[in-house]
Amino acid sequence: MKKIFLFSIIIGLSFSCGKKVSQENNTTKEPKPHLVGGDSDAHGCKGSAGYSWSTLKKECIRIFEGTKLSHTEETGKTYTTAAFVIFDGDKAELFLDTQEESIILERKAEGQPWIKGDLQLIPWKGYVLKKGDKIIYTGE
User: Fold this and answer.
1) Alpha carbon of residue 26 to chain centroid
2) Rounded to whole angstroms, how far apart are CA atoms 83 and 77?
3) Neighbouring residues of 61: CB distance < 8 A, sequence distance ≥ 6
4) Is the CB of residue 67 less than 8 Å from the CB of residue 60?
5) For residue 108, how far is the Cα from the chain centroid?
6) What's the rounded Cα separation, in Å, for the pair 33 and 130?
7) Burial (CB count within 10 angstroms: exposed 0-12, middle 13-18, buried 19+), residue 25
8) Nearest to residue 97, comparing CAs of 86, 79, 81?
9) Taking the CA of residue 106 as centre, how many other CA atoms within 13 Å lie in the half-sphere pointing to its CB?
């Protein structure tokens, strides 16, 4: 009688364990949440932590710690974005909200504007960024 009782307990446990294992296998796994700071661009800069690659500095930087340039005011337009510029000697790296890649501007001498193509960053009452003859950003 003891053998039958012991045998039925063992069979009962194996069925209940088997059921538990099969239930665990049937559950759908939730995707792991995306961690802030867990992303990196091609240079290893973590965009979610505010870092972008600087071609000029050759390192990850936080562009918002540079000089902020705001859109010039035009009647009826409100802008919520800005551009930023960082300086290194006679070069300036421009991060425009309308461009994916930064733009490197160069100047010939102290007090002269930084230039690339039709873009000019002029040191005047802070900074003025012109495209051709049109002022597009200003900042201090």
Assistant:
1) 38
2) 16
3) 51, 52, 53, 54, 86
4) no
5) 32
6) 43
7) exposed
8) 81
9) 3
CB 84 within 8 A of CB 64: yes
The rounded distance, in Å, linking the Cα atoms of 13 and 88 is 73
Q: At 45, is the secondary structure helix, strand, or coil?
A: coil
3 state DSSP class of 52: strand
Residue with tokens 């039958």: 4
Q: Which two tokens stand for residue 99?
A: 């461009």
- Using CA atoms, how far residue 137 sits from 63, 70, 107, in Å, is 16, 5, 18
| Amino acid at the residue 35 | L
Neighbours of 61 (CB within 10 A): 20
Give residues with Cβ within 8 angstroms of 48, minimum separation 6.
36, 37, 38, 39
Q: Which two tokens stand for residue 91?
A: 């070069």
pLDDT in tens, 83-96: 999 999 999 999 98
Pick 13 or 100 by higher pLDDT. Answer: 100
In the structure encoding, which two tokens stand for residue 107, read together?
Answer: 């100047």
Q: What does pTM read for this prediction?
A: 0.66
